[in-house]
Design a protein that fits this description.
alpha/beta; disordered N terminus; 54% helix; 289 residues; 6-stranded parallel sheet; Rossmann fold; 2 domains
């Protein structure tokens, strides 16, 4: 059965093209409201890597292998063909993250290292991985999830490319601190519904910079970002780690950190106050089993 999506806008196409080009050590976060849109982005990301000779691992957040298979069958990815040649591995979260109800962070990271090494031994050029993080929320292991993300860090030490997918319906109700902790461990901020999500992020950046710097100095900063760092205003969400680096080189680490915190807080407020209402309202479609 073919999945029906909302009509793709130019920003939808832009984000799908962007995820194709993510590089080794990138550790992106993908916010979503609709799980089908999320998986469209994730499978686009994985397929682009496999088409370039990379291996891929998809850690699914569903409860049963039958549900996972149903999800992969909905997309135009020949899962069985990729699995047969060893390019794709689809696993459930309880085979990778939460084994016997517990999280062993060193073991998870070691498993990623072994997977990358095994892929290279089989002749693959690299590895792309993506994870549906809803399992940690369902199992009340959110604090452990944050510690795992911190252990991975913004730039992955392991030579692989990763996207972690977070359901906003699960993440935002748990408070600002958790939201900030999760964001700070990722290099790129992506939205499965980018037409609204990126607008909200850019509004948060604009509001904070204008409040701190004033409108004129904000304009000068955007000009410098473009001229000296090759970073346009529209690129800031999906290239946030580069934006953070540019702020650090411009203002110093302490001020850059303060601006980052203020932007993330403003983004959280906008997301929880209804500024981001994709396709008629926030609704949780990603955790039913």
């Amino acid at each position: 059965m073919k999945t029906e999506y909302f009509p793709l806008t130019q920003k939808d196409l832009d984000i799908l093209n962007f995820v194709k080009g993510l590089q080794a050590s990138d550790h992106a976060i993908l916010f979503y409201n609709d799980l089908k849109n999320c998986r469209q982005a994730l499978f686009t990301f994985l397929k682009a890597g496999m088409d370039k000779g990379e291996a891929a691992v998809y850690v699914a957040g569903r409860e049963t292998s039958k549900q996972n298979q149903k999800a992969t069958d909905e997309f135009s990815v020949n899962v069985k063909r990729y699995e047969m040649v060893g390019a794709l591995k689809v696993v459930n979260y309880d085979e990778w993250y939460i084994i016997n109800g517990k999280i062993d962070i060193p073991n998870i990271i070691m498993s990623w290292r072994k997977a990358v090494d095994a892929a290279k031994e089989r002749g693959f050029k690299g590895m792309r991985v993506c994870s549906e993080m809803s399992c940690f929320f369902r199992r009340n292991l959110v604090n452990e999830m944050v510690e795992y993300e911190k252990a991975c860090d913004r730039r992955l030490e392991i030579p692989m490319t990763a996207i972690c997918a977070y359901d906003l319906n699960l993440l935002t109700p748990l408070g600002e601190k958790l939201f900030l902790d999760v964001l700070k461990t990722h290099s790129h901020i992506l939205f499965a519904e980018p037409d609204l999500g990126f607008n909200v992020t850019l509004e948060a950046v604009d509001d904070v910079l204008e409040k701190v710097l004033g409108n004129l100095s904000k304009g000068v900063l955007f000009s410098n970002l473009r001229n000296f760092f090759g970073l346009s205003r529209e690129d800031i969400p999906k290239m946030f780690i580069d934006f953070r680096s540019a702020l650090e080189k411009t203002f110093g680490d302490m001020t850059a950190g303060l601006l980052e915190n203020m932007i993330f807080r403003e983004l959280y407020l906008k997301l929880t106050n209804g500024a981001y209402v994709p396709h008629g309202g926030l609704k949780n479609e990603g955790v039913s089993t």
